[in-house]
Amino acid sequence: MSLLELQRLLGSLPPSRMRPEELGALAAGWPDALEVEELAAKACFSDQGYTRTILHRSPAWEALLVGWLPRQRTARHGHAESFGVTCVLEGSLVEVEYRLAPGGQVLKAERRKHGPGSVFHEQPHTIHHVEHAGRVRAVSLHLYAPPLQRMELYDGSTGTSHPRRSGRREPKSSIMVR
Ligand SMILES: [Fe+2]
After folding, report:
1. Is 96 exposed, middle or buried (0-12, 13-18, 19+ CB in 10 A)?
2. At CB < 8 A and 24+ separation, what contacts does 104-113 make?
3. For site-directed labelling of 11, which of 1, 79, 154, 158 has its Cα 20 to 30 A away?
4. What digits encode the pLDDT tens for the residues 67-103?
5. What residue ranges do the domains of the chain occupy?
């Protein structure tokens, strides 16, 4: 599937909010169906941090690419009301998942490495951070429903969270691809 075909497919999906099962079913076919090199070539990179490139955004959902350079990572975050799926197109990412302890602390629960073709899921209650895991660049494709407008950032010692608008630290790097 080319980028154009993916954009046509995404554009033809119903504007109503996609359900998590629909997100999962769509992303399950990505590793085999996508023309990975063409898609990955649309990703942007910055020394300032991981870089989001919006492929499609509607009120109900969005698809975007993230370009990662070595040692770049997200903050520890939750996903407000969004469900998401991520497919690694190039390179490798590490996902570190956390859980909230009864006392409020945020504890590391699992660490998973995702290589090319891996798909992983995010739910509103998922608390994790994602980091680049290799020596060369990485590219990932993300689908969120509804669009990930804000991330919940967690304080590690108290477990309290506060919202931050998604992509705020990369004001020059959220690029709409037409
Ligand atoms: Fe996330």
Report:
1. middle
2. 104/158, 104/159, 104/160, 105/156, 105/157, 105/158, 105/159, 106/76, 106/154, 106/155, 106/156, 106/157, 106/159
3. 79
4. 999 999 998 898 888 999 999 999 999 999 998 888 7
5. 3-177
Cα of 145 to ligand 1 centre, how many Å? 12
What pLDDT, on the 0 to 100 scale, is given for residue 168?
46
Distance CA 58, CA 31 (A): 24
- Cα(178) to ligand 1 centroid in Å equals 25
Question: 151-174 burial, b for 16+ CB within 10 Å, e for fewer?
Answer: bbbbeeeebebeeeebbeebeebb
